[in-house]
Every structure is written in C-alpha cells, then in structure tokens.
TrEMBL record:
This is Thiosulfate sulfurtransferase/rhodanese-like domain-containing protein 2. The gene is Tstd2. InterPro entries: Rhodanese-like_dom, Rhodanese-like_dom_sf, Rhodanese_C, TrhO, TRHO_N, TSTD2_N. Signal peptide: none annotated. The lineage of its organism: Eukaryota, Metazoa, Chordata, Craniata, Vertebrata. Residues 72-91 have a biased composition (Low complexity).
Amino acid sequence: AGRKQRAAARRKAFSLFVKAKEVPAASRCPGGGEGVRWRCCRQAFEELPGIHRHVALHHSGDVGRQAGLGAGPAEAAGPAEAAGSPTGSAARPSGHSCGSPEISWTLPDTSHVSQEDLTSVIFFFVNIHFLFAYLCHAVGSQVGDVLLYYCYCEVRDPEKLSAWQKALCQHLHLTGKVRVASEGINGTVGGSKVATSLYVKVMLSQPLFKNILCQEDFKSSAGGAHCFPDLRVGVFKEIVPMGIDPKIVSYKETGIHLSPQEFHREVEQYLSQATQGQSDTILLDCRNFYESKIGHFQGCLAPDIRKFSYFPSYVDENLELFKDKRVLMYCTGGIRCERGSAYLRSKAVCREVYQLKGGIHKYLEEFPDGFYRGKLFVFDDRYAICSNEDIISACRYCGVLWDQYKLCSSQHCRQLVLTCPSCCNKGLTACCPVCQEKELKVTSRASGQILKEECECTRRRPRVPIERVSPRMLDTGK
Ligand SMILES: [Zn+2]
Ligand SMILES: [Zn+2]
Ligand SMILES: [Zn+2]
Ligand SMILES: [Zn+2]
C-alpha cells in the first residue's frame, strides 16, 4: 500500500526539485544562451529530458529527502533508474533502488569479425614473407585508433566495473590504461578500428553511462594497440590523480564548460585585451610542464609543475594571482579541468572559472590552425600528436627548434628529453649532465633496480613555482 504512495511522493518531490532549478523567463536571454531553461550544478539545460537525467543522476538523495522518505545518499532512489524520467515506471520499492544503475556485464559479439580486423597485428603471423610483414607493420601503425575518454558519475561497485572493463578490453584485444573509481571512469585504449568502434558502442550501451556519455566524448586519434606496452585496468580513489579526496572536492562543483567555438572566441578576446595590458582573464594550462612545453595556447599561463597532484598546491601558493580573475582553463581531453576547476572554485577567489569541454583534443578537431600552437602531448608511445606544423620548443643541448621527446637514456631515469638528432649523434641522450655521467658508469649492473620517478635535475626544481605578480604568460608573438 505504501509503495504507491512513496512513488507518488517521489515523483512530486522530483518535479518540485526540477521546478526549483528553472531559470526565470525574464532573466533567460541576457548573458546566457537563449535556450537555457534550467540551471543546476553550474550546468545549463535546454530540454526537459536533460535536466531530468541530471537530477536523477546527481540529486536522487535530495529528492528522496524532500519526498520525506528519509533516503540517505547510500540508498538514494532515482525515479526510474536508467531513463531518469519521473513519469516512467516509478513504482519501485525505494529501499532497494539506487541513484546509479546496475553495471551490466556486456561483451560484444565478435564472432562475425575476423581476427585481422580485430587485432590488425595478426597480419604478421599470417604473412609468410618477412619483408612484407615488415611493410604491413609500417602501414599497420596507421590503421588503428587510440581512444581517450572519461565519465564522471556515481559508481557503486568500482571493483565490478573494473573487472568488466578488463574483460571487455581483453575481449577486443585493446591495450592501454583504464582507471575506475567511485567518481567514474577514465580510459585511454588502443586497438584496431573495428575493436575501438565496438568498444565505444558497448560503452554507450552500458546503463551506468548511458545517459551521460555520448559518442563525441570519445576523442580518437591515429594509433593502435602498439601504442601501449600492455593493458592496465584498476580501481583508484580518483579517476585522475589530483590528490584531493573526491568527497572534499567533487566533480559536481566544476567550472562552466565552454565548447571549442566558445573557448576560441574567449581566447581571441583575451588575446586582444592582453596585448593592451588590460585583461582580467587568465588562460590557464593545467597540464604538466613537459606537456605545455611542446604545445600550448598562445598567451597561456603554463605552471611549471611536474604532475597534476601538484596543481592544488600551485593554486594555494598563487591564490593572489587568481583574485577577481576570469579563468579559462584547458587540458588534454578535459578531465583534469573537471576537478581542477572545482578545486580553484573552492577557493572562492576567482570571478568565474571556465573550462574547455573536450580539451585540446576537441579544440584541434575544430581549429587545427587556431590559437593552440605546437603539438599535443599524449601519454602513450606516440608522445605527441600533431595538428599544425609549428615547433615551439628547443633542443635541450643546442637550442635548435625541436619537439620530439625521447626517454632519458640513463637506465634508471624516467624523464623525457628534447635532444635533436645532431646532439643525439654526439651522445647527448640523457635528460641532464648528471644522468649522462651516470649512464657511462652504470652500464649493465643492477637491472633489478626500480625506475626512479625523479632525477637530480628535477629534484632541484621548486615543486610548486610561485608566479610573479605579472605572470610570465604573454608569448603571443609565437
Ligand atoms: Zn545539479
Ligand atoms: Zn641539439
Ligand atoms: Zn635522466
Ligand atoms: Zn636529469
């Protein structure tokens, strides 16, 4: 008897919640987009299904409490799990339902796909002639794809999601890295074109992501399974390691998303103001120094930090810089900005924080010759992908223009080095003189030693640089 009543109460609370997020008609047009009818969690919604989905996914706990059902976040009930529509079949026992849908264990049917199409590597074993196989390899490196994607959502059973991901990737012969956490999933995987497109299809049909992920959230570039040494799938606390508990700084507090076009326009405006020295905007590259070194947006502020987990301290140490500023943030695919902007916002010093939706990846698809110059660093064996011919960095040793990274030749060092072919030929293959010397001494012993994350040359750098009041950012001429 109570079940129907509870469902009705929930439906009512749901519509009230949505109603409360309505943008008053009078204030709709100026400033914001014309079609915006609802706003919630700093996101704008133009259509009813959009706001319904959002509330179902992120506010089921609030709705439950408003309905007087006393549902805590752990057992918070969504109105209708997948569709997220309050008018759907809502009569479910609230005690057993949950805001995030069950993970479905789906593996695609690959029986109709040939091994060649699935792997694009099998080629080598099928072809008898070695030379021909070698040629196939050269061509083969272009036939596959590398996908990059993330999805912030509430994952109730990260272990299960991780196990399914592992099975799925193995099934499709994909390599790469997939991070799962209770805050979502983040992956970069490589494989044949057939395999990666099957992967996308299955991911889009997974109930957990169904209403959040869409085709264009997958950024793809030429590559393949050979771009990664292996497959790594695991459960972590965060899907991108910022080092801050997602319960303290949540992706839900993120900055305002700008499409590549909107971002382009903002950068254009910023650059025209900045050359006259009157900008109230900071264009912030939130990637690591070695990424922004070989490619960045003109006029950006690129923090000299070695990893993303230093970003929060960078913000803390440079708060004054961000005071009353509009901040335009960007990163590779957008994921670091999601929580990076949330962190910056949590400091309550900026006027507003914006982020580039889909990151540089999506920007370059629309503006290959826009304000982003140089190469896009990627975390796989390709090191970088290219969209324009500019080279904006130099050889560490002779200063000639050069942007192709190599791993330091010293056995136990993981630093990347920019050393041009002629310096390489002279034997300058390490990241710094210290490593270069070490390499000569330590030739073949102690192979069991673990790779060191830091080298003498990076340990001497300040971990978190303090920017001067007028930041080193205007390289608009480049
Ligand atoms: Zn919301
Ligand atoms: Zn050189
Ligand atoms: Zn080194
Ligand atoms: Zn070094």
